[in-house]
């Protein structure tokens, strides 16, 4: 389970992000609305991921990153309306700074968060990652695991239904349940998750 600090001066954005992150099975350990609050919480909690808006009051996002630099155990995800191209010159030498536009829809936000969390194993220790995956697998029934296996192998609903002697509608129900439990917004992200995590 990845741990997040959210930094934005708009309550609606904080609640929006919190809903997405918790639905993916991760934890929001704190929120901050100013740069000063953010630095205090970073030093106090040492979060793995910090989702940060640039335009926050009382020290902007740039100053927060300057005072609490990213590291192998601390990744910043800039969540901003500022075009990514405008930020590249500033952050191109900093590997631990990522970017998500506030204009992205929920499915793309989830997909990018997933790639930042699972795509770089330096962000989660092996023990933390194994524990997180174990928790996810424990919540799946034997039938759900079987459907997930067939989906990851490229079988279609009709083929899976025939192999398991169930209806296509039931397969669709399993697919939706799997995406909900694993925090995936689409079939592509579900398959990506399976192949990256090696849970099967």
UniProtKB/TrEMBL annotation:
The keyword Phosphoprotein applies. Residues 132-198 form the HTH luxR-type domain. Keywords: DNA-binding, Phosphoprotein, Transcription, Transcription regulation. GO terms for biological process: phosphorelay signal transduction system; regulation of DNA-templated transcription. Pfam families: GerE (PF00196), Response_reg (PF00072). GO terms for molecular function: DNA binding. This is DNA-binding response regulator. InterPro entries: CheY-like_superfamily (IPR011006), Sig_transdc_resp-reg_C-effctor (IPR016032), Sig_transdc_resp-reg_receiver (IPR001789), Tscrpt_reg_LuxR_C (IPR000792), WalR-like (IPR039420), WH-like_DNA-bd_sf (IPR036388). It comes from the Bacteria. It comes from Vibrio qinghaiensis. PROSITE patterns: HTH_LUXR_1, HTH_LUXR_2, RESPONSE_REGULATORY.
């Amino acid at each position: 389970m990845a741990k997040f600090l959210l930094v934005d001066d708009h309550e609606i954005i904080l609640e929006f992000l919190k809903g997405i992150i918790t639905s993916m099975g991760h934890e929001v350990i704190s929120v901050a609305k100013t740069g000063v609050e953010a630095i205090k919480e970073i030093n106090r909690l040492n979060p793995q991921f910090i989702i940060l808006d640039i335009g926050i009051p009382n020290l902007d996002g740039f100053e927060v990153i300057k005072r609490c630099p990213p590291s192998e155990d601390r990744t910043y995800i800039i969540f901003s309306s500022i075009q990514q191209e405008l930020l590249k010159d500033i952050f191109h030498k900093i590997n631990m700074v990522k970017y998500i536009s506030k204009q992205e829809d929920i499915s793309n936000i989830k997909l990018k968060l997933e790639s930042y969390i699972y795509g770089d194993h330096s962000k989660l220790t092996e023990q933390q990652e194994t524990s997180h995956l174990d928790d996810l697998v424990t919540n799946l029934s034997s039938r759900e695991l079987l459907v997930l296996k067939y989906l990851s192998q490229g079988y279609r609903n009709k083929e899976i239904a025939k192999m398991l002697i169930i209806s296509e509608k039931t397969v669709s129900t399993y697919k939706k349940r799997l995406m909900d439990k694993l925090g995936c917004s689409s079939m592509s992200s579900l398959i990506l998750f399976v192949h990256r995590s090696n849970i099967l």
